[in-house]
Amino acid sequence: MMFISADYVAKVWPSHERRNAFDAAIARRTEYILPVRFDNTAVPGLLHSVHYVEAYQYQPAQLAHLVLQKLGHA
């Protein structure tokens, strides 16, 4: 899960995590990452084919349900 905001993009560690997550996704050849955007910040290096979940479109419980689905617990 990538919880994206301006703060996320400004920090070094999330960039490192993001690169590793995409490497894992490619190696597994499966859906692996769910980017959730809390503002309109673009993530440098993120392919245009990667779709975001726009957090503002969901109530907190709905967003939690998406997270559980992604983790295979829904």
Helix percentage:
40-55%
- Strand percentage: 5-15%
The number of helical elements comes to 3
Q: Poorly predicted ranges (pLDDT <50, ≥5 residues)?
A: none
- Count of discrete structural domains: 1
Say what oligomer this is: single chain
Order of helix and strand elements from N to C terminus: EHHEEH
Task: Give average pLDDT, whole number.
Answer: 83
Instruction: Give the strand order, joined by hyphens, for the main sheet.
Output: 1-2-3
Extended strand count? 3
Beginning-to-end CA distance, first to last residue: 16 Å
Rounded to the nearest angstrom, the radius of gyration is 12 Å
Shape: globular
Coarse structural class: mainly alpha
Largest sheet: 3 strands, parallel
Protein described:
- The protein has 74 residues and is mainly alpha-helical.
- It has one domain.
- 46% of the residues lie in helices and 11% in strands.
- It has helices at 6-10, 12-28, 60-71, and strands at 2-4, 35-37, 53-54.
- Strands 1-2-3 form a three-stranded parallel sheet.
- The two termini are 16 Å apart.
